[in-house]
Design brief:
heterodimer, A: mainly alpha, globular, B: alpha+beta, Rossmann fold, OB fold (Dihydrolipoamide Acetyltransferase, E2P), six-stranded mixed beta sheet, five-stranded mixed beta sheet, 20 strands, 34% strand
Chain lengths: 256, 363
């Protein structure tokens, strides 16, 4: 009995040690970045860099553009992917591999190739619209949205509840909006979060298409004010974390 | 809850899945207010028939007529059917009352009317107190009751029950089975009930249809189905049978357990002198002690199984084969394992079939 207790304690110790190492791996750069962003000229620490964020002349335009791209990406991703993944789970299982394959392409094809393809194919008049970048983000987010929604639907007997709703007179739109979506909240929130995180972090496409989004702005600012640039990165990370916590909270409330 | 019942006709329904013929020109008529149970082994096409009627699947050919109207091409959402599924199909994000009211909401019934109807129906299935519970907080029996209330809330033309009891434990299954029948009679709704459980089908249905390989082998009253099976498959599928080798005699009878029995309708047609299998129900065999007479075939009781009022005895005949005998438990007490007995057929006619058809017969 004593041997079993000893082994159990050793296992717990090993688990905690592993967790501590992983936490250190992730937290050390974050702590360093935060510390750097708080440094002030006189050798003390303060919030000067964070205060100056709001005073930047481009700040409002950059945030509005990023917000617009975020809304376009999230809404379009959900409108396209929720019905698609639902159909794959309902009956079109033979197309699952195909949809999965297509959704994985953005991970295989470099963003520069995607951008050049789009620039060559799209009418010139479209190239001046930021919405085009939003459409490209939808493609770029596909690997994440597919997986998040797929995982959500795995936990749901979607075929039975869809059949039940159809049998009760619900149209396909009603089925998607009132039956599938409310029961797929965690998957939808996950897809939303990942898409938002992608828009907040995507640099290559925005830069190549000459749009001044949040990530390209951080890079530009970083060339003249390193502390401000790092402060912006830390702030965007904090924003993403808050979002993640809110999503988890909303999901927990639903389950309760 | 007064309503007019609707009749249903399935005409020459055919449905294939690749090379598999799930339904092979099925014809079935449900009279208004009738409950028909479709019974059969897995893959016989019973659920396919139900899904075609619900509109959740489309036939390759044939017609579905409800209340005199051809609804074959009508989508599921426009058919006015109520359906209860084998797996719990309640919407997890809605309470019991909201689940029941879902179909009414889709039909744009006012909120006050919806809530009133949902409350009434939950009372009807004995769950008035559970109206605010979510499906995850309900037992399987409660979930299926709510699903039943939800199905009848929309006052459907036809109620479709796809093995609704198979996920429940034995006691709840019996209770809910009786409840479904009570509700069905009370509401007067035409109902198609699909099951692989023959006891369930016999207990609940006005008529039972036995299906095999996409065909309806026999549709009859439960008692007729049991006593006068139309085909050897029905005889072997419904109830338990002893399979006893025999030979067709010149006068058309067969000798089974020491008695000459007439060949029952629905038997395979066999020539005089041809070897056959006789299908004899366990309750159609009587036992006597060997020292009590000479009438019957000798054997030894090898084991007994007590089922309450009835006991099933397994008897090894001297010829080497085993037979099952059902008898009232008060009588079975006289026959413990090892008792030397004489087995005798207690019926005047018996279903016979080709000996090679024995694979169809359950043990």
């Amino acid at each position: 009995m004593a041997a079993i207790v000893k082994r159990r304690k050793e296992r717990h110790l090993f688990a905690w040690l592993t967790l501590a190492l992983v936490a250190l791996y992730f937290l050390l750069p974050l702590v360093s970045a935060t510390e750097f962003s708080l440094r002030e000229n006189n050798g003390t620490h303060g919030l000067d860099a964070y205060r100056s964020i709001l005073q930047q002349p481009d700040f409002r335009d950059v945030i509005m553009l990023t917000l617009r791209l975020t809304v376009i990406s999230v809404v379009l991703s959900l409108v396209i992917m929720v019905p698609t993944v639902t159909m794959v789970h309902l009956g079109a299982k033979k197309y699952r591999r195909l949809v999965e394959f297509i959704s994985l392409q953005p991970l295989v094809i470099p963003p520069i190739v995607l951008v050049l393809g789009v620039v060559n194919v799209m009418p010139v008049s479209w190239l001046g619209s930021a919405d085009l970048l939003g459409f490209e983000y939808v493609v770029l987010a596909m690997p994440f949205t597919f997986r998040a929604l797929d995982a959500g639907l795995m936990n749901l007997d979607v075929k039975t509840i869809v059949d039940a709703a159809r049998g009760l007179g619900a149209s396909w739109l009603t089925v998607l909006v009132r039956v599938v979506a409310p029961n797929l909240k965690s998957g939808i929130f996950g897809a939303m979060f990942l898409t938002i995180a992608l828009v907040l972090g995507e640099f290559t496409m925005a830069s190549l298409m000459l749009w001044n989004t949040f990530p390209t702005w951080i890079a530009t600012v970083g060339q003249s004010d390193a502390a401000l640039s790092v402060a912006l990165s830390v702030a965007s990370l904090a924003f993403a974390w808050v979002l993640l916590v809110l999503i988890s909270f909303a999901d927990r409330r639903r389950k309760a | 809850m007064e309503r007019t019942s609707t009749g249903v006709e399935l005409r020459n329904l055919r449905r294939t899945f690749g090379p598999v013929v799930a339904l092979d020109n099925l014809n079935l008529t449900l009279q208004p207010g009738e409950l028909i149970a479709l019974l059969g082994p897995s893959g016989c096409g019973k659920t396919t028939a139900l899904r075609l009627l619900a509109g959740l699947d489309q036939p390759d050919s044939g017609e579905i007529v409800v209340g005199g109207k051809d609804i074959t091409a009508v989508p599921a959402s426009k058919r006015n059917m109520g359906m209860v599924f084998q797996s719990y199909s309640l919407f997890p994000n809605l309470t019991a009352a909201e689940n029941v009211a879902f179909g009414l909401r889709v039909r744009r019934v006012s909120k006050s009317e919806r809530l009133k109807r949902a409350a009434e129906l939950l009372e009807l299935v004995g769950l008035g107190e559970q109206r605010d519970r979510y499906p995850h907080a309900m037992s399987g029996g409660q979930a299926q009751r709510v699903a039943l209330a939800r199905a009848i809330a929309v006052q459907p033309d036809v109620l479709l029950l796809d093995e609704p009891l198979s996920a429940l434990d034995a006691k709840v299954r019996t209770q809910l089975r009786d409840e479904i029948r009570r509700l069905q009679i009370e509401v007067g709704i035409t109902t198609l009930f699909v099951t692989h459980d023959q006891e369930e089908a016999m207990a609940i249905a006005d008529r039972v249809g036995v299906m095999r390989a996409g065909n309806l082998e026999q549709l009859d009253l439960p008692a007729v189905l049991y006593a006068r099976p139309a085909t050897p498959f029905v005889a072997s599928f419904v109830g338990t049978n002893n399979v006893l080798p025999t030979t067709v005699e010149p006068n058309g009878t067969v000798y089974v357990l020491g008695r000459a029995l007439a060949v029952a309708a629905g038997s395979d047609e066999l020539a005089v002198g041809q070897a056959a299998n006789a299908l004899l129900r366990p309750e159609s065999v009587s036992l006597g002690h060997r020292d009590g007479g000479t009438d019957g075939v000798a054997g030894v009781v090898s084991s007994t199984s007590f089922f309450g009022s009835v006991t099933r005895l397994t008897v090894k005949l001297d010829a080497g084969n085993f037979i099952l005998v059902d008898m009232p438990s008060v009588i079975a007490r006289d026959f413990s394992a090892g008792a030397e007995v004489l087995a005798r057929a207690m019926t005047n006619e018996v279903v016979i079939q080709h000996q090679e058809a024995v694979a169809l017969v359950d043990e």
